[in-house]
Amino acid sequence: MAEDAGGRSTAGSRRPLTYADSGVDIAAGDDAVDRIRSVVASTARPEVLGGIGGFGGMFSFDPSRYRSPVLVSSTDGVGTKAMVAAAAGRYETIGIDLVAMCVDDIACSGAEPLFLLDYLVVGKLEPDLAAALVAGVAEGCRRAGCALLGGEMAEHPGAMEPGQFDLAGFAVGVVERDAILGPDRVRPGDVLIGLLSPGLRSNGYSLARRVLLEAPGLAFDRPVRPGSNRTLADELLEPSVIYAPGVLAAASSLHAAAHITGGGLPGNLVRALPPGCDAVVERHSWEVPAIFGDIARLGAIDEDEMLRVFNLGVGMVLVVPDEHAGRVLETVGEAGYRAAVIGAVVEGGGEVRFAGEGR
Known about the structure:
Number of helices: 11
Shape: globular
Largest sheet: 6 strands, mixed
CATH class of the largest domain: Alpha Beta
Oligomer: single chain
Number of domains: 2
CATH superfamily of the largest domain: PurM-like C-terminal domain
CATH topology of the largest domain: Phosphoribosyl-aminoimidazole Synthetase, Chain A, domain 2
Number of strands: 12
Radius of gyration: 24 Å
Strand content: 15-25%
């Protein structure tokens, strides 16, 4: 660096700073956007106007399709499951989890998901990583039948380390006002039908990680239990089932639905109950996936805590008039979902109670 007569450096000779010097790579962002154009386009519905690159996603909503349309929205993220994906270096499916968390919430109102927007924040933007994550979101949108209408990728150097990321988003759907599902429709005698889940979905991962990643002898690339051909990474990164299409297929025969996320069955099924009804869940009525038994055993976690934290193999509960239960089981089965009758609604005070084995 040049010096003046007094031996001091001259500011004019310094190399100009760039955004890249601060840790934000605009070129990498442009590359990532180019890579996701085709997967975003693959989710388009006829109502989508334009493509990726605008300042806002445009959706030509046609109110003439409805008598009295109500828009329903929900926002969510993937939580600390993102940390598992980063540690395992497997990013292809976690976007499916994001879509499931958002669209399955609005499906509980009977709403058809129309579109979703996502938000990806990383410590350092790597185009391959961003493309894999957004490809998962696009796959989730295709499964849900909604458009990936837009999103945002942000690079936060200093706030997050390279390799760290978080993924969030929100979905918007529509339902006829007189078709909205909810507690006001629920009556004693209704049947509880559980739509089954093979894994944790995106809930309880702080506890699951604490137990499984600290257990002696366990590693991402090894099975959790003897005789299993699934590694710990396979178990923890099992993508969430997206239930919205099944709920919509059966919606005309439903009274209510409950998405079983954080809080488990007790914390979520109660949201589908009116004050004068209890839900009685038969604990022996479905097979609990083995991973939950592994967590309980290795962490010495009691059953009440397991019920309060995890879904234990039930990702959605449909509240159905008794006379329609057979029809609903057939409908969701034809749509590709495993389901079981797991209990009933009885008179009570708006609580979730458990009966049968283990309680």
